[in-house]
Amino acid sequence: MENQSVVKGFRHVGLVVRDIKVSLSFYQNFLGLTIARQDTETGDFISRLVGINGVTIEWIKLNIPGGGLLELIQHHSHLDTKMTLRVNLTPTNQLGCSHPAFTVNNLQALYDRLTDNGYQCLSAPLHSPDGKVKVLFAYDPDGILLELVEEKTRPGEI
Protein backbone atom coordinates (compact mmCIF):
# COMPACT_ATOMS: atom_id res chain seq x y z
CA MET A 1 0.00 0.00 0.00
CA GLU A 2 1.35 3.41 -0.95
CA ASN A 3 1.94 6.01 1.71
CA GLN A 4 -0.78 8.50 0.78
CA SER A 5 -1.77 11.46 2.90
CA VAL A 6 -5.15 11.12 4.50
CA VAL A 7 -5.24 14.86 5.27
CA LYS A 8 -6.91 17.01 2.62
CA GLY A 9 -6.48 20.39 4.30
CA PHE A 10 -6.30 22.34 7.55
CA ARG A 11 -9.60 23.36 9.21
CA HIS A 12 -9.06 25.05 12.57
CA VAL A 13 -7.36 25.18 15.94
CA GLY A 14 -9.68 25.21 18.96
CA LEU A 15 -8.84 27.05 22.16
CA VAL A 16 -10.90 26.54 25.32
CA VAL A 17 -11.21 29.93 27.01
CA ARG A 18 -12.60 31.25 30.32
CA ASP A 19 -14.61 34.16 28.91
CA ILE A 20 -15.40 34.06 25.21
CA LYS A 21 -16.18 37.81 25.06
CA VAL A 22 -12.79 38.74 26.54
CA SER A 23 -11.00 36.34 24.19
CA LEU A 24 -12.97 37.54 21.17
CA SER A 25 -12.03 41.12 21.98
CA PHE A 26 -8.34 40.16 22.21
CA TYR A 27 -8.23 38.26 18.92
CA GLN A 28 -10.23 40.95 17.09
CA ASN A 29 -8.49 44.00 18.55
CA PHE A 30 -4.90 42.77 18.63
CA LEU A 31 -4.75 40.32 15.72
CA GLY A 32 -7.56 41.66 13.54
CA LEU A 33 -9.38 38.34 13.18
CA THR A 34 -13.03 38.46 12.09
CA ILE A 35 -15.99 36.25 13.01
CA ALA A 36 -16.80 33.52 10.49
CA ARG A 37 -19.62 31.98 12.51
CA GLN A 38 -20.70 31.30 16.08
CA ASP A 39 -23.15 29.14 17.97
CA THR A 40 -24.11 27.68 21.34
CA GLU A 41 -24.57 23.91 21.42
CA THR A 42 -26.18 21.53 23.87
CA GLY A 43 -27.87 18.18 23.52
CA ASP A 44 -27.06 14.61 22.57
CA PHE A 45 -24.82 15.26 19.57
CA ILE A 46 -22.38 17.64 21.26
CA SER A 47 -22.41 15.60 24.48
CA ARG A 48 -21.51 12.44 22.57
CA LEU A 49 -18.94 14.25 20.42
CA VAL A 50 -16.97 15.75 23.32
CA GLY A 51 -17.65 12.92 25.77
CA ILE A 52 -19.29 15.11 28.44
CA ASN A 53 -22.93 14.37 29.33
CA GLY A 54 -25.20 17.42 29.47
CA VAL A 55 -22.55 19.80 28.16
CA THR A 56 -23.32 23.31 26.91
CA ILE A 57 -20.64 25.07 24.90
CA GLU A 58 -20.45 28.34 23.03
CA TRP A 59 -18.02 28.69 20.15
CA ILE A 60 -16.87 31.40 17.79
CA LYS A 61 -14.83 30.58 14.69
CA LEU A 62 -12.56 33.40 13.54
CA ASN A 63 -11.20 33.77 10.00
CA ILE A 64 -7.43 33.56 9.67
CA PRO A 65 -6.27 35.46 6.58
CA GLY A 66 -4.68 33.01 4.17
CA GLY A 67 -6.87 30.12 5.30
CA GLY A 68 -8.04 28.22 8.33
CA LEU A 69 -9.97 29.22 11.41
CA LEU A 70 -9.30 29.84 15.07
CA GLU A 71 -12.11 28.46 17.23
CA LEU A 72 -12.72 29.95 20.66
CA ILE A 73 -14.71 27.60 22.92
CA GLN A 74 -16.32 28.42 26.26
CA HIS A 75 -17.87 25.66 28.34
CA HIS A 76 -20.91 27.09 30.09
CA SER A 77 -21.27 23.81 31.94
CA HIS A 78 -18.66 21.37 33.20
CA LEU A 79 -15.89 23.90 33.80
CA ASP A 80 -12.34 22.61 34.05
CA THR A 81 -11.34 23.06 37.70
CA LYS A 82 -8.19 24.88 36.54
CA MET A 83 -10.46 27.59 35.13
CA THR A 84 -11.45 28.69 38.62
CA LEU A 85 -7.82 29.26 39.58
CA ARG A 86 -5.64 32.14 38.46
CA VAL A 87 -4.47 32.18 34.85
CA ASN A 88 -1.46 29.92 34.46
CA LEU A 89 0.88 30.77 31.62
CA THR A 90 1.46 27.83 29.31
CA PRO A 91 5.17 26.91 29.26
CA THR A 92 6.84 26.49 25.88
CA ASN A 93 7.70 22.85 26.66
CA GLN A 94 4.17 21.69 27.64
CA LEU A 95 3.22 18.34 26.16
CA GLY A 96 0.42 18.50 23.62
CA CYS A 97 -0.60 21.38 21.44
CA SER A 98 2.09 23.93 22.13
CA HIS A 99 0.87 27.09 20.42
CA PRO A 100 -0.87 28.50 17.37
CA ALA A 101 1.43 30.67 15.25
CA PHE A 102 0.28 33.71 13.32
CA THR A 103 2.06 35.68 10.61
CA VAL A 104 1.60 39.37 11.43
CA ASN A 105 2.49 42.81 10.12
CA ASN A 106 4.72 45.13 12.16
CA LEU A 107 5.60 42.86 15.07
CA GLN A 108 7.26 45.67 17.02
CA ALA A 109 4.05 47.75 17.01
CA LEU A 110 2.01 44.68 18.06
CA TYR A 111 4.50 43.92 20.85
CA ASP A 112 4.22 47.52 22.08
CA ARG A 113 0.39 47.35 22.07
CA LEU A 114 0.37 44.01 23.88
CA THR A 115 2.79 45.06 26.60
CA ASP A 116 1.15 48.49 26.98
CA ASN A 117 -2.11 46.63 27.65
CA GLY A 118 -0.60 44.30 30.26
CA TYR A 119 -0.11 41.19 28.13
CA GLN A 120 3.05 39.21 28.80
CA CYS A 121 5.57 38.35 26.10
CA LEU A 122 8.56 36.06 26.66
CA SER A 123 10.84 38.55 24.87
CA ALA A 124 10.78 41.58 22.65
CA PRO A 125 10.72 40.72 18.92
CA LEU A 126 13.84 38.75 18.00
CA HIS A 127 15.43 38.31 14.58
CA SER A 128 15.83 34.66 13.59
CA PRO A 129 19.43 33.55 12.99
CA ASP A 130 18.80 33.40 9.23
CA GLY A 131 17.34 36.94 9.29
CA LYS A 132 14.14 35.91 7.50
CA VAL A 133 11.71 36.63 10.34
CA LYS A 134 11.17 38.52 13.56
CA VAL A 135 9.42 36.38 16.14
CA LEU A 136 8.17 36.36 19.72
CA PHE A 137 5.97 34.34 22.04
CA ALA A 138 3.08 36.11 23.79
CA TYR A 139 0.18 35.09 26.01
CA ASP A 140 -3.52 35.67 25.37
CA PRO A 141 -5.99 36.53 28.21
CA ASP A 142 -6.11 32.87 29.31
CA GLY A 143 -2.35 32.36 29.37
CA ILE A 144 -2.42 30.43 26.08
CA LEU A 145 0.91 30.70 24.30
CA LEU A 146 0.92 32.32 20.84
CA GLU A 147 3.80 32.59 18.38
CA LEU A 148 3.77 35.84 16.43
CA VAL A 149 5.97 36.05 13.33
CA GLU A 150 6.76 38.89 10.95
CA GLU A 151 8.29 37.74 7.68
CA LYS A 152 11.22 39.94 6.70
CA THR A 153 12.17 38.37 3.38
CA ARG A 154 11.06 40.37 0.39
CA PRO A 155 11.49 39.39 -3.27
CA GLY A 156 15.17 39.61 -4.15
CA GLU A 157 16.33 39.39 -0.50
CA ILE A 158 17.93 36.42 1.17
UniProtKB/TrEMBL annotation:
Limits of the VOC domain: 9-151
A Pfam family annotated for this UniProt entry: Glyoxalase
GO molecular function: lactoylglutathione lyase activity; metal ion binding; methylmalonyl-CoA epimerase activity
Keyword ATP-binding: no
GO biological process entries: L-methylmalonyl-CoA metabolic process
Keyword set, alphabetical order: Metal-binding
Protein's name according to its UniProt entry: VOC domain-containing protein
